[in-house]
Write a structure and sequence with these properties.
Elements lengths: L9 H8 L14 H30 L5 H11 L7 H11 L3 H26 L3 H24 L3 H33 L1
Length: about 190
């Protein structure tokens, strides 16, 4: 019987012994401080989503109730004088609220909560699309926030405007830094 001989050259041996190509990494290699920054912004967006859901649910619960009566019950539970200036203002505003306005408010609030949920989740998972999404939406909202601040100057509105400006600036800086690093890696 004859023997079977296998002839292999060096190139075939190196191809067979070379490790398989590594799959592309899905998580970016971010510095721990940048991970914390994205986590903080993501938590801020998720908190806004939770607050928006709470407001939407509250508006739906008021849908079939007399808002003025609810205000008086809350004032009584908190031991606030029903004749106080604050309760008087709330009663005037309560007369302007009808069921259609409450329904529209809750729909808009739930939609906003959904957007914040998507932003926050994407940022916490370090997804680049979430960074672009957040920069775009937050930047588009800045003129409206400036207008609202112009209409009524309050410390809360100033703080929210500053936080949103810082969020946009940080994410733009982070995206530009990543873009430069990837460009440098592709050149080498």
């Amino acid at each position: 019987m004859g023997t079977l001989q296998v002839n292999t050259n060096r190139d075939e041996q190196t191809e067979l012994s070379a490790p398989p190509p590594q799959p592309r990494r899905f998580r970016r290699n971010l510095h721990p401080e940048h991970r914390r920054g994205l986590l903080l912004i993501g938590l801020f967006k998720l908190a806004k989503a939770a607050l928006s859901v709470g407001l939407g649910v509250g508006a739906l619960k008021l849908l079939h109730h007399d808002v003025a009566t609810v205000i008086l019950r809350i004032a009584d539970a908190l031991r606030i004088d029903p004749e106080s200036h604050l309760i008087g203002l709330l009663m005037i505003k309560a007369d302007l609220i009808d069921p259609n306005k409450l329904l529209h408010f809750s729909i808009i609030t739930f939609a906003y909560a959904g957007v914040c949920l998507v932003e926050g989740t994407g940022l916490m998972l370090e997804k680049r699309w979430a960074e672009y999404f957040t920069v775009t939406l937050t930047s588009l909202a800045l003129p409206l926030e400036c207008y609202e601040l112009y209409k009524e100057f309050t410390p809360l509105r100033v703080a929210l405007l500053l936080v949103n400006i810082l969020v946009v600036a940080y994410l733009v800086w982070l995206l530009r830094r990543q873009f430069r690093r990837e460009a440098a890696e592709s050149e080498s």
